[in-house]
Design goal:
Strand order of the largest sheet: 1-9-8-5-2-3
Radius of gyration: 17 Å
Number of strands: 9
Bound molecules: ligand LXAUTJHC
Number of helices: 6
Order of helices and strands: EHEHEEHHEEEHEHE
Helix content: 25-40%
CATH architecture: 3-Layer(aba) Sandwich
Strand content: 15-25%
CATH class: Alpha Beta
Largest sheet: 6 strands, parallel
Structural class: alpha/beta
CATH topology: Rossmann fold
Shape: globular
């Protein structure tokens, strides 16, 4: 488990631009040292803001998009192309404008796909896709993600791990179906905390005053069942990327030294 590090930016626009710059560097470095990079995307306002900032950054051309694997931390279980699906929003924000290898874009199944309306079967299929990508040499059920990003909801949810729902208590499976989520749509697919914790780096993104209470709670010792964001950390690094509004309720003892 890595101790959370906090970076606080002036506002959400600057946060998105700085996080996009950070992600470009990570991908380029991973491609230089290992040949390819593996990134887990998040949905939500901050995840999409980062992708839009990346699309607008001239340095995006430093990435070899054909040597990048993209995965998702969660998906809203809706028909293919639905505007509320996380993958649809990511395509609009960035993916449609860069030359990705379609075989390396690992979207979670849709509710009108091969598993029909069965979110649990769709989750199992995604878990199998992760196992295949991990390969036997990794001795892991998931590939070695370089960066796994998570938006933090105002209720402290990350991916589709909501407080007190069964998915946040999962200790064995890497992907599960979610039923009865408090945020629409109620049916979702999500990586579990064990899968999230297998990533080299976990980045949690939160901007806006509606996130301030969730950020303070998750970083002040709350349990992961009550505050799922508290249970999200990476093997080498856990980075909280915040704007000043989202950091406003943090105790001074947690505030990074150089922040206003
Ligand atoms: O529904 C979801 O919400 C969270 C947080 O979204 P935000 O708009 O409050 O930032 C997101 O991270 C997750 O991927 C998504 O499915």
């Amino acid at each position: 488990m890595s101790t959370p590090q906090l970076v606080v930016h002036r506002d959400k626009e600057l946060m998105a631009q700085a996080a996009a710059a950070r992600l470009i560097t990570k991908i380029v470095d991973a491609q230089a040292s290992r040949g390819s990079a593996s990134v887990v995307l998040t949905g939500g306002r901050n995840g999409n803001g980062l992708l839009a900032a990346l699309a607008a950054a001239p340095a995006r051309d430093a990435v070899d998009w054909s040597r990048l694997d993209l995965w998702w931390g969660d998906e809203r279980f809706l028909p293919e192309g639905d505007p509320d699906r996380n993958v649809t929003q990511a395509r609009e924000a960035l993916l449609d404008s860069v030359p990705l290898d379609p075989k390396r874009v690992h979207a979670m199944p849709a509710s009108d796909g091969p598993y029909g309306n069965d979110a649990d079967a769709a989750a199992e299929a995604y878990a199998e896709e992760l196992v295949r990508a991990a390969g036997p040499e990794n001795h892991s059920a998931v590939p070695a993600f370089d960066v796994l990003m998570l938006g933090v909801g105002p209720d402290t949810h990350v991916a589709s791990l909501f407080p007190e729902l069964p998915a946040v208590r999962e200790t064995e499976r890497t992907v599960v179906g979610v039923h009865g989520a408090p945020k629409p749509p109620p049916t979702r697919i999500t990586l579990t905390l064990p899968a999230i914790r297998s990533a080299r780096e976990v980045w949690l993104l939160a901007a806006g005053e509606d996130k301030a209470n969730a950020v303070a709670m998750a970083l002040s010792g709350a349990g992961e069942v009550q505050a799922p964001a508290a249970g999200a950390y990476g093997r080498s690094r856990t980075l909280w990327l915040l704007d000043a509004a989202a950091a406003a309720q943090l105790p001074r003892s947690l505030y990074p030294p150089a922040s206003p």
